[in-house]
Amino acid sequence: MGLSDLPAVNASLNAASASFLLAGWLLVRAGRRTAHRNCMLAALACSTLFLASYLVYHFHVGSVRFTGQGAIRAVYFAILTSHTILAVAIVPLVATTVVRAWRARFEAHRRIARVTLPLWAYVSVTGVAIYWMLYRM
């Protein structure tokens, strides 16, 4: 595996994270707390691996320019802007959500998770969209 493979790996990690988040949400709604915890920890692992891989790639490559023209350019930058802002905001939200669950403060965990989950899912899904727009369009 070379450096040029990392964008696809990163997109796969984001897709896996989004899938684990959805599964975890469905599981907690079904009352399956242990399975929910396992899915959420898997989502956390995928997101953490993504961040490490993303930083390695961009340390070596720098920024990648979007070459699309016309309306798709505006769409790309709207997605990228919201994704970037929320990607920064999600880190402390995820950390707080995980710590509250770890400490068995489930009511506080539930309150913040209602904010964290949709934002984290959005960041994961838009990460895949950005990959497709940058490398596949």
- Quickly count the helices: 4
Principal-axis shape equals: elongated
User: What oligomeric state best describes the polypeptide chains here?
Assistant: single chain
Please trace the helix and strand order, writing H or E for each element. HHHH
Biggest beta sheet attributes: none
For the termini, the CA-CA separation is 23 Å
Number of domains: 1
Strand percentage, roughly?
Answer: under 5%
| Category from helices, strands and their pairing | mainly alpha
Uncertain parts: none
Computed over alpha carbons, the radius of gyration is 16 Å
Average pLDDT reading: 97
Question: Percent helix among the residues?
Answer: over 70%
Number of E-type strands: 0
Secondary structure layout plus pairing:
Layout: H1 6-29, H2 33-61, H3 71-102, H4 106-136
Please name the defining characteristics of this protein.
single chain, 137 residues, mainly alpha, 4 helices, 0% strand, elongated
Describe this structure in words.
By secondary structure, the protein is an all-alpha fold. The protein has one domain (3-136). Helix content is 85%, strand content 0%. It has four helices and no strands. The chain is elongated.
Quick synopsis:
The chain is mostly helical.
